[in-house]
Specification:
The chain is mainly alpha-helical and 123 residues long. The protein has two domains: 71 residues, Multidrug-efflux Transporter Regulator, Chain: A, Domain 2; 51 residues. The protein contains five helices and two strands; from the N terminus they run H-H-E-E-H-H-H. This is MerR family transcriptional regulator. GO terms for molecular function: DNA binding; DNA-binding transcription factor activity.
Length: 123
């Protein structure tokens, strides 16, 4: 499958596909007359890359995970550890965002409370 077809199929820009190759997320994609030809293994790898990118993993972490994945079943524990670490990072982020939401809710409450007092309303 040519790069343009892959781009359309996965809704990823050609520039992004070239970038993934440049930073090492793809091994060298076969070229026929200078045109990239993606094989099934490349498509599977791209699918995994996009899944991990959508989750929020860095290119470095994606590359580490893919390398472990391609080493075989004996690296499953390490793969799980990478994913668990990323999961914990997401949970920490959610926790911090919830604290920020709570702070905003409190500020809104204070403003509404002050407005009630200003207009002579009782609590």
């Amino acid at each position: 499958m040519r790069i343009k077809e892959v781009s359309k199929r996965f809704n990823v820009s050609i520039t992004a596909l070239r970038y993934y190759e440049k930073v090492g997320l793809f091994e060298d994609v076969n070229r026929v007359n200078g045109i990239r030809e993606y094989e099934d293994k490349d498509i599977e790898r791209l699918s995994l890359i996009l899944t991990l990118k959508n989750i929020g993993l860095s290119n470095e972490t994606i590359l580490k995970y893919i390398e472990l994945n391609e080493q075989g079943a004996h690296t499953k524990k390490q793969q799980i550890q990478v994913l668990k670490l990323e999961r914990q990072k997401l949970l920490d982020s959610i926790h911090n965002q919830q604290k920020n939401i709570d702070s905003l809710d409190y500020l809104i409450y204070q403003l509404k409370d002050k407005e009630k007092i200003k207009h002579g309303e009782q609590k």
